[in-house]
Write a structure and sequence with these properties.
The chain is of the alpha+beta class. It has seven helices and 17 strands. A hairpin with a 2-residue loop joins β3 and β4.
Length: 271
């Protein structure tokens, strides 16, 4: 799979082998903020073994003119689309997100995905990775944000990222879909100076949780950008809610915590 996709994946909890495909080629601006790849421009593909075959799921970040050729190539190779939609509003240029699913021989699937990615400007990873010491420090009160949110995050590419799994077991077509395959609430903070941050990501919700979470977010000044599905045959059926704001990072973390409190998510790690 690594050879077919021209990059290395990483093992994730739940026996998921995942590839990160950041769209570093895109220069996208929303509300005056230049969006970092780790905030809302991160394509990904994840594989999970099922018997002698594998299930693949993913989310491809695409420009308008990439959608039709990628869709055709994937359909020709037996990889299906489960949703095509926005994650942001008012960004420039426009960005579309294509959620995909398939099953079969993992190497064949990887080759098929590589042929579709070749129709985009998705960049290959750099030949060498800078040492950890060379990574810039993040301009954010990380400990205060984590305390307000109630969870521990990790810094990746200058973005403070959180992943909050749900308590239910999620399945699709009878196969378990672990959090690493996109069933955990994702929350990302990109510093914008003077203690502020742009936030983006998506809440993973049951239908009954949708409007309570909307109310919690809007009460705290966090915009709701999209409400839609990512999968077709998931049990229980999940709704994904994408959000955006640019404000004091701790204040936003408190608002996100209020929204998480309306969901059946993993208990907070930080009291």
């Amino acid at each position: 799979m690594d050879a077919a996709l021209g990059r290395s994946g990483q093992m994730q909890p739940g026996d998921v082998y995942k590839f990160a495909l950041p769209r570093r080629d895109m220069k996208v601006v929303k509300d005056g903020v230049t969006i970092a790849p780790g905030l809302a421009l991160g394509s990904w593909i994840a594989f999970k073994k099922m018997g002698n075959e594998a299930m693949v799921m993913g989310d491809l970040v695409l420009a308008d003119d990439e959608i039709e050729p990628v869709m055709l190539k994937l359909q020709q190779n037996g990889i299906e689309q489960t949703s095509i939609h926005n994650h942001l509003l008012g960004e420039s240029p426009r960005v579309i997100y294509m959620h995909i699913a398939g099953h079969g021989d993992p190497v064949v699937l990887a080759r098929s995905l590589a042929s579709a990615l070749a129709l985009t400007k998705t960049p290959f990873p750099p030949a060498t990775t800078p040492p950890a010491a060379a990574q810039p420090t993040i301009d954010l009160k990380t400990a205060e944000v984590e305390q307000a949110l109630g969870y521990s995050g990790k810094v990746n590419g200058g973005i403070l990222q959180f992943s909050v799994p749900r308590i239910e077991k999620i399945s699709d077509n009878g196969m378990e879909v672990p959090p690493a395959m996109g069933t955990a609430t994702a929350i990302n903070f990109q510093p914008t100076g003077e203690g502020k941050a742009a936030i983006a990501g998506d809440f993973v919700l049951l239908t009954a949780e949708v409007n309570p979470v909307i109310r919690a977010l809007r009460t705290h000044g966090i915009e709701v950008e999209a409400v839609h599905n990512h999968m077709l045959f998931d049990q229980p059926h999940l709704i994904f809610m994408h959000f955006w704001a640019n404000d004091d990072a701790v204040k936003l973390a408190q608002g996100l915590r209020a929204a998480l409190n309306e969901t059946s998510s993993q208990k907070p790690q930080i009291k």
